[in-house]
Design a protein that fits this description.
single chain; 6-stranded parallel beta sheet; 512 residues; alpha/beta; elongated; 7-stranded parallel beta sheet; 21 helices
Length: 512
């Protein structure tokens, strides 16, 4: 009698997720806890794996308040036979009171306790119940799990979405119910470890570096940013992180996989827009959206005004907002007769500098400075002709992928994930999708804006097909299906087999 085949079981461990697909459990559609792009990537990866028929499971903290769960729902979703849980319930909630009443994923005061409670439940309960063939961990809050998996002979993939890490003593792990004795030698410590007893109380473990150190393969969220870290181009990356990424890279066990924008970013059916359009009808839709944004923000009502949009948080350490502040008045003055406008729909510590520029020069009808709102941000993409993103560094970035979907051309600094997603236009505009400057300076940004204005002065009959092309290319390239396929390829490489079915003894076996 032919033997059966067994699909490899994948356990995705993530502290945040935007949604889960139907069919993964009774409460799947209630599971939403987002702090950043990790939530979107996790959601779409799980959905794509599930739709493909992969045996995928998810470990999440039980954020009862964020999930809007009541006591009866929790009881019925968690009190079931183990066999039923594995067959039909693929969502595994880590239980601890520290999760239950949270209104956001992270907390500066409680990050250590949250991370340890989550990892305790994954290591002690979820991994033994699921018995995965591969574990996919994400960021520092899962940094202990690859080490624990290694002692069990389970391969792991560790994804770095953010360079941030935390340091924790073994004693703290023990106090929170984790026994690291079996896997502590697979962790990364601040100093060379001695014996366990001394290390326990005196030598902190770096969680992100530990995940990198113990995992079988690691990836960043863009290929170029990975190379920049390995080459030491960013002094903000701590040595332990850079050293471990470099070690994995040179051993052939590191790669870059780009994130992708949320599918909700689509001008054809964006629920935040009153005027929908496609790549073929963008002129009319964008003109109507521009007038709407101008009306809301107090800018001059002029559908022909070149409109530049700033969507990123106003963080001077990363996002380059000071570069724009240095040249903002000059740009508006130089192109005043052309009606140039700038809309900053963003929050952050640097916002007051733009408020001061507008007030000092009385430019309220040319420069809008508005706190971030989801609705206005979507409208900003639809209304604008150009999107400004002069980041000093960018592990991945999403605005430069969202903007061309809406026909808003990126004006960007050539770094990290931006380099992987924005190519400077060729002279005849038959290739490329934006205006990119290489040298991080206000002069570089000014040059790119000038290039954008040269393009804007071209006849509509020239600009229209170029914008149509970049919209269509963005939709084909920047989507979660593409991202998920790259992760699936990586899973299969680590496992040495397809995710479809694994032959146990004979080639005629059927999938269960």
């Amino acid at each position: 009698m032919p033997a059966s085949k067994k699909k490899p079981r994948i356990l995705v461990v993530t502290p945040e997720i935007t949604y889960l697909p139907e069919g993964m459990g009774n409460l799947a559609q209630r599971m939403s806890a987002k702090a950043g792009g990790l939530a979107d990537v996790s959601a779409t990866l799980v959905q794509h794996l599930h739709e493909q028929g992969a045996d995928v499971h998810v470990a999440l903290p039980n954020y009862r308040r964020m999930f809007h769960l009541d006591v009866q729902q929790i009881f019925h979703s968690t009190h079931r036979k183990l066999s039923d849980s594995l067959d039909n319930q693929r969502i595994h909630l880590a239980e601890d009171r520290i999760f239950y009443r949270r209104e956001r994923v992270y907390s500066a005061m409680k990050n250590h306790k949250i991370a340890l409670a989550f990892q305790r439940e994954v290591i002690n309960n979820i991994i033994p119940a699921v018995q995965p063939d591969l574990i996919h961990c994400n960021d520092w809050m899962t940094g202990l799990i690859p080490a624990a998996a290694k002692t069990l002979g389970i391969p792991s993939l560790f994804t770095v979405h953010n360079i941030h890490s935390e340091r924790i003593l073994l004693a703290e792990m023990e106090d929170r119910g984790i026994d690291p004795l079996d896997f502590w030698q697979h962790l990364y410590f601040e100093n060379s470890p001695g014996d366990y007893d001394w290390t326990r109380d005196h030598n902190p473990c770096n969680l992100l570096a530990s995940g990198l150190f113990a995992a079988d393969h690691v990836n960043s969220v863009s290929p170029t940013f990975l190379h920049e870290v390995v080459e030491g181009k960013h002094d903000f990356v701590p040595d332990p992180i850079r050293n471990e990424i470099s070690s994995k890279f040179y051993s052939g066990n590191a790669s870059g996989i780009l994130n992708a924008p949320d599918p909700a970013y689509d001008p054809e059916n964006d629920s935040h827009l009153d005027y929908h359009y496609t790549s073929k009808t963008h002129s009319k839709g964008k003109a109507a959206s521009k007038m709407q944004l101008q009306s809301i923000t107090g800018l001059n009502l002029n559908p022909d005004a070149p409109l530049f949009f700033w969507p990123s948080r106003l963080d001077p350490m990363q996002k380059g907002c000071q570069l724009l502040a240095d040249i903002l008045f000059q740009v508006v003055d130089q192109y005043y007769d052309q009606g140039l406008q700038v809309a900053l729909i963003a929050s952050g510590s640097f916002k007051h500098h733009f408020d001061d520029i507008v007030r000092m020069h009385n430019l309220y009808d040319r420069i809008a400075v508005v706190d971030f709102e989801e609705h206005l941000s979507h409208l900003g993409y639809a209304a604008s002709d150009f999107m400004i993103m002069p980041s000093r560094f960018e592990p991945c970035g999403l605005p430069q992928m969202v903007a061309p979907k809406y026909g808003s051309i990126p004006v960007v600094h050539d770094t990290g994930g931006i380099h992987d997603t924005v190519q400077h236009f060729s002279p005849d505009k038959t290739s490329g999708n934006g205006f990119s400057f290489e040298h991080y300076s206000s002069e570089g940004l000014k040059w790119a804006i000038d290039e954008a204005m040269h393009f804007y002065k071209l006849d509509e009959s020239v600009r229209h097909p170029v914008i149509t092309r970049i919209m269509e290319e963005a939709n084909a390239k920047f989507n979660h299906e593409v991202t998920a396929k790259e992760y699936i390829k990586k899973y299969e490489a680590i496992l040495g087999q397809s995710l479809d079915c694994q032959t146990v003894s004979t080639p005629t076996a059927q999938c269960l």
